[in-house]
Every structure is written in structure tokens, then in C-alpha cells.
């Protein structure tokens, strides 16, 4: 089984202004003249992480990480003004131009997969190929599954804990209730809501979730606020937008890797995408859930990046 490559440090980092409000953190590591790949992190709101550099052979890839608006080392932290999907897509194109890259590979999981697909549809001539994991399609059905009726039937006890911060009268619309709680004037109310939001996601993310995880509460609050901001606004896209525009990217090759037991983004997402996206291939990971940290998902992703570096082709 393939393991992550050893830790590396960036050879360059940038703070790139993208409008009057936001400045993005962008870093480059690996080989300066290597295959350019941009890692599109999840959430929305999760931010990049140093381990994301380690899915790629650093002697073969020019590895680009960035923090989306309001995330990580981008500024201002947690800012929701001018923070929509359209802005994020435009930001990725600004980064590409700033770094002088003609075409690149997109590597994204969950929300990062959705954003990668949307970017590929907006700028298909700039995408060499896509490697996607645990696909989110950002439809009403996806939101309902995780925040209304679906995942709650698989993790009923965790769902019960998720509902606890919400007054009973508001529990029929969980997203609206959390959107209000996360913006409450009371610090305790906001923090309690953020911790419950994070715990629900964590309970569903892997096949064997950890019994305890120490959290940085302010980072947890920022993630929850940005996520709820996007989901309450239908991720700022039209319903079924990715499938409606799939023709725009049908010439782009790609590989979809998805865990059979993904409870956050169901396997049906990946199957439907593969059926509609002409040049895609699908690899279903038998013993995996949602998170890239799961050994079998990690193995599949590294095998895929190694194969592309060697042959210029996706697996599947």
C-alpha cells in the first residue's frame, strides 16, 4: 500500500490580492519545472494543509496549495464579503496567471472536487486533467442527505448530538438554524454551535472515527461559518449546475476516486458523474469512507499521481 511522500517545505509562497477585500495565501513546493498541480481544498472553509503536498512525488510535480477566501493564511480570516463560488473560480484563474502556468492538473476532494469541476467548466482550455476524490455535486439532494434526511439514519446518535444546540421549533431546518447560531451575538452560543457542527462532520468522515480530537475552536468556528454561508446559499450555483454544463468539459480526462462507504458524499454522486462525463474513469475504493486520510483512499490517490507522472494517463 502506498504511503504519503515525506514532508517537504515550500520553495516559494505568495500573498496575492484578488480584490479590495481578500488576499490569498499561495505556496509552491516540489519541482519548479514539474507537472503543475493545484490542490483545491475542501470545506468550504477548511483551508490547505501541509500533508496535501505529500500526495505527489516532489521530484515530478510542481505542487501548488492555496487557501480559499477567508481560510487558513488568507486574509481577512473568516470574511464572508465577496466570498462566493464565482469569486473562488476567478481566484484560481488569477493564481494560474500569476504563476505563469499554461495548463494544470486539478486535485480536489469533497467541496474541492465540486470547485474543480466548476473551474473546469469555466476555463476548460486551462485544465490538463482532473483527479477527484469523494465527489460533492453541491445539489439540493446532497445538502438534504447530510443536513436533513439520509446520513442521520446511519449515524442516529451523532445526529441527535448535532441537533442539541438547536431549539426544537427550528429543527426542521437545520441549516437555517445553524446559520443563525453561528452568527449569534453570544460567544458561547457560537462556539457551542461550531463544536457541534464539527463533531457531526467528524463522526461521518471515516469508517473508524477517532473517539476524541482536540480542536482549535477559532478555526472550527471559521470553518463552520464559511460552510454554513455556502450551504445556506446553495453554494452560490444553479441547481444541478455541474451536470447541466458537463458538455463544456467532456474533452478533459479525469479520474474519480470514491469510497464505497462515504456517508458525507454518497457513492451515487461519483457514479452519476462518471456516467455523464465522457472522458472520466471511476475507481471505487471498497473499504473507505470520505476522508483522504483513510489508508485505502490515500493509497489510491498516490497510485494515481504516480501513474500520471510516469505515463501521462489516468488510471481506471
> Helices and strands, in N-to-C order?
EEEEHEHEHHHHHHHEHEH
Q: In CATH terms, what is the fold-level topology of the largest domain?
A: Rossmann fold
**SS field, number of helical segments:** 11
Strand % is 15-25%
What Rg is obtained from the alpha carbons, in whole angstroms? Answer: 19 Å
Helical residue percent band: 25-40%
User: Into how many domains do the coordinates divide?
Assistant: 2
CATH superfamily of the largest domain: Alpha/Beta hydrolase fold, catalytic domain
CATH architecture descriptor name of the largest domain:
3-Layer(aba) Sandwich
Mean pLDDT: 95
Head-to-tail CA distance between termini: 17 Å
Low-confidence segments: none
Task: Please summarize the sheet with the most strands.
Answer: 8 strands, mixed
Element layout with pairings:
Elements: E1 12-17, E2 23-30, E3 35-40, E4 61-66, H1 85-99, E5 104-110, H2 111-122, E6 127-135, H3 140-147, H4 151-154, H5 156-163, H6 174-181, H7 187-205, H8 217-232, H9 241-244, E7 254-259, H10 267-276, E8 280-285, H11 295-311
Parallel strand pairs: 3-4, 3-5, 5-6, 6-7, 7-8
Antiparallel strand pairs: 1-2, 2-4
Helix pairs in contact: 1-2, 5-7, 6-8, 7-8
Amino acid at each position: 500500500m502506498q504511503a504519503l511522500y515525506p514532508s517537504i517545505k515550500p520553495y516559494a509562497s505568495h500573498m496575492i490580492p484578488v480584490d479590495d477585500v481578500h488576499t490569498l495565501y499561495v505556496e509552491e513546493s516540489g519541482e519548479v519545472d514539474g507537472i503543475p498541480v493545484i490542490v483545491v481544498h475542501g470545506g468550504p472553509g477548511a483551508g490547505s494543509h501541509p500533508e496535501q503536498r505529500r500526495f505527489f512525488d516532489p521530484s515530478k510535480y510542481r505542487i501548488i496549495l492555496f487557501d480559499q477566501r477567508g481560510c487558513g493564511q488568507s486574509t481577512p480570516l473568516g470574511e464572508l464579503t465577496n466570498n462566493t463560488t464565482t469569486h473562488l473560480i476567478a481566484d484560481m484563474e488569477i493564481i494560474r496567471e500569476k504563476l505563469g502556468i499554461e495548463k494544470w492538473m486539478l486535485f480536489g476532494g469533497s467541496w474541492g472536487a465540486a470547485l474543480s469541476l466548476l473551474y473546469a467548466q469555466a476555463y476548460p482550455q486551462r485544465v490538463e486533467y482532473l483527479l477527484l476524490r469523494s465527489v460533492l455535486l453541491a445539489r439540493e439532494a446532497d445538502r438534504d442527505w447530510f443536513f436533513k434526511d439520509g446520513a442521520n439514519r446511519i449515524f442516529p446518535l451523532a445526529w441527535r448530538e448535532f441537533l442539541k444546540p438547536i431549539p426544537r421549533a427550528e429543527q426542521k431546518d437545520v441549516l437555517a438554524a445553524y446559520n443563525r447560531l453561528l452568527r449569534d451575538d453570544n460567544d458561547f452560543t457560537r462556539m457551542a454551535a461550531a463544536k457541534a457542527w464539527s463533531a457531526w462532520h467528524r463522526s461521518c468522515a471515516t469508517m473508524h472515527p477517532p473517539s476524541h480530537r482536540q480542536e482549535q475552536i477559532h478555526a472550527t468556528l471559521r470553518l463552520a461559518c464559511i460552510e454554513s454561508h455556502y450551504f445556506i446559499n446553495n453554494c452560490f450555483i444553479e441547481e444541478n449546475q455541474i451536470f447541466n454544463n458537463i458538455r463544456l468539459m467532456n474533452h478533459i480526462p479525469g479520474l474519480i476516486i470514491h469510497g464505497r462507504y462515504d456517508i458525507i458524499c454518497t457513492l451515487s454522486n461519483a457514479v452519476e458523474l462518471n456516467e455523464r462525463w465522457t472522458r472520466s474513469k471511476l475507481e471505487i475504493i471498497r473499504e473507505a469512507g470520505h476522508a483522504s486520510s483513510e489508508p485505502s483512499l490515500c493509497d489510491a490517490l498516490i497510485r494515481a499521481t504516480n501513474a500520471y507522472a510516469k505515463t501521462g494517463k489516468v488510471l481506471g
